[in-house]
Amino acid sequence: MSKEAGHLPLSASDAKFDRSHKSHPSIQWTRPYFVPIPGVHNRRLRIYLPNLASFNPLRISKLRRKRGPLFISFACLAVFLTVLLVTKSLGRSDWNSDWPDSTEDGPTLVFHRKHLQQIWKWEIESGHYPSRASVPLEIGLTETLVNPALPHKPPALKPSRYLSPDSDNIVVDTHGVGPKRVYLDLQSHPPNVAYPPRPVPGSVADMDEIMKHCDFSANKYVRDCLEVLRIGGGLDNGQRYRREDMDDWKYIYLEQPLNATERAAIHDPPRKPSQPSMRRITKQGGKKGAVVDPDEGLTKKIGSEWEEQLVLSPTLDYRPTATLEKPCDPENPKVFHMFWTGPFTDKPYLALMSFLYTQNTGLHLKEWPSDSKVCRPQFWLWINPGPAANAHNPTADMFEQLKQSPWAAPFLHPRFKGIIQFKRWNTTEQLDGIPEIKHEWRALQESLFNSGGHIISVKKKEPATTANVTSTAADGSTTATGSSEEDDEILNRTGSKSASSYDRLSVILSDMARFVLCHRFGGVYLDADTIFLRDWEELWGWKGAFAYRWSRLPNYNTAVLRMHRNSALGSFLFRTALKNGLDFHPMTVTRYTQDAHLQGLLLRLPDALFDSAWLNTEEYQRDRPPQPYFTKFQDFFDTPDQTSGSPQALGFRGFFRGAYSYHFHNFWWKPFDPARNFPDLGPRFAKTEQIAHENLRKAKAAALAGAAGATTSSGDSSANDEPEFATTPGNDKRDLDWSTVMKRTFEAYIRGETPNMYGEWLDWVE
């Protein structure tokens, strides 16, 4: 059947359906169209739209008599568009509900191509690119770079289809000269199959293999990805049901240094003579004086000048773990960072508890052995003691406040010394510690809170008045955020106490803080709404930088961020952000790397590794969801009745087994364990528990007093957002929620009632 202009193609069966309609002239006003359904690959949605071929002059006179079918077709179109809008609205995560979508405001690039080549060269030769993925053609490399983190394999030269023939070949592969890789078969062996084995010290995760099994862009399911992560990591202990060969699922390896003979066998990479890598641009209509534009194909940020230089530290020496004198690599500190504002609550408490339950901290040993081959991880919790709007917060005794906090005090116990450290955040001190921006960031101080081009300006008025808070959109329009009283309340928020009192400034500050901490100190940053689910040993072994995917969108989510100290990538990001208003929103960071063709240097890992429920909450992959099945993030706290038997029956082991962590996307005001909303750690911490009970009693009394004074006609919708209180135990639900089961699992480990996830019992050495 012929296709008319603008019509969607029909399948054979659909064509038959269409012909049956053509046999009835009375209904030729409409025609069926078939469009794909997002997330459902084997079905299409049939909609009826006006048949434009039927609108000819002879039939116009009959419009009034045939008004019914035409009206129906337009009604169907309206319903279809409404469904699309509602689906988009419902598909948004709670995390993103208050934030602007990524806007294409124009290019962000401020670096020449020679600088981008310099960045790639620095990162590759420092061992931060242990991947066989190609260097983008747009970078225009004309010589092969030596890659010490990649095993030897003859590189390939590919001609660029984007460049003219006079640029010759562009090099897109690196020359591996690194150690051999020995892939591991990790599993528990009888009779010790109750717990999984700890990862091998110094092991490395092959991200190329993980991407092959987990990339959403390649239509890989989270459920299948988690199975590969589970089996390849030995987390299917005692439950390995598959019997076929699964060598293809091995993604963890050890580096085996080359001997002298093997090193001698590696030839030098083929070096190409320096030559123009971009097309020749002939000025003045092809007359003499043709010049080469080295930046052709790159689009500079409008209104900005090119950066004239890029100052980088010396290239690092790549050293496999097996060649280190000590287990910890000073160039790659094994430090987790987390940022927190306001009073310490159950959210950072559970993050720390999950860290102790999963990571190889050696708490099962009486003392850390001097000859240990394990690099002991550390957790640095950065606390901003005051509102985010204050660049200089008061210097009150932070540790005295922590001692009085029942949620924080347990981690001050001497047993956790050297493992968990509390550090004070000072915005001025931290930004001054970034050499790329320390002399210029103050010029942007009044517009420091920039998220996706949406600026919340914090300008100080005269002492007699309150601060002026305005919101500036990307187009430059400015609006006040509310009344003076509301503005002052926004400025002075220290944490999110409910959905209606969200501490947006602290969230924006944390977007920047994660890059500051990783660039200054190295390590991995995690959002405070994160729970560890397994040992991260092999992730530390992979020396590249990474974040993860923003659900279905090809953007970054930096709720997990790994970067190296004083890296070339970090220098690029801070200089670029400075020229773009110090905007570190994840979607803006995506634009920075896209415009500069540097996305390969900040790998966008699948969200299955750190955020396994996200796609399901946005109505993707619901035909084959992972375990557990969450349709919204709140299901973690309020598990639906239909699946409420799973948490207690399956426990920690049945919670996204294989993933490295879980991101529950805010809900700061929602307690993990409403019936026991206090640190339930046993007699050793009885005093702090008593403080928690007293605080709960005071909070409940204040809440009841506030409720009594509120009028029913106020229409305050935030009442349901208030925290839940329980001053005494004994109020358990019949079916415990996932959040409650997770909290009580970690606390049972601290009380000495159960080992950690690897079967190790905590030794208090008392």
Detailed description of the structure:
Helices cover 27% and strands 15% of the residues. It is built from 19 helices and 24 strands. Helix 8 packs across helix 19. It comes from Candolleomyces eurysporus. The chain crosses the membrane at residues 68-87. One of its GO terms (biological process) is maturation of SSU-rRNA from tricistronic rRNA transcript (SSU-rRNA, 5.8S rRNA, LSU-rRNA).
Q: What is the CA-atom radius of gyration, in angstroms?
A: 29 Å
Major sheet attributes: 7 strands, mixed
Shape, principal axes of CA atoms: globular
Approximate helicity band:
25-40%
Topology of this protein?
Elements lengths: L11 H11 L7 E8 L2 E11 L6 H4 L6 H25 L21 H13 L20 E6 L5 E2 L11 E2 L3 E4 L1 E4 L20 E2 L1 H8 L7 H11 L19 E5 L3 H6 L14 E2 L9 E2 L42 E7 L4 H13 L19 E7 L13 H6 L16 E5 L2 H6 L16 E3 L2 E6 L8 E5 L5 E3 L3 H8 L12 H18 L1 E4 L3 E3 L4 H5 L3 E6 L2 E11 L4 H12 L6 H11 L5 E4 L8 H4 L28 H5 L10 E3 L22 H24 L28 H14 L15
Parallel strand pairs: 3-6, 12-13, 12-19, 13-14, 21-23
Antiparallel strand pairs: 1-2, 4-5, 7-9, 8-9, 10-11, 15-16, 16-17, 17-18, 19-22, 20-24, 21-22
Helix pairs in contact: 8-19
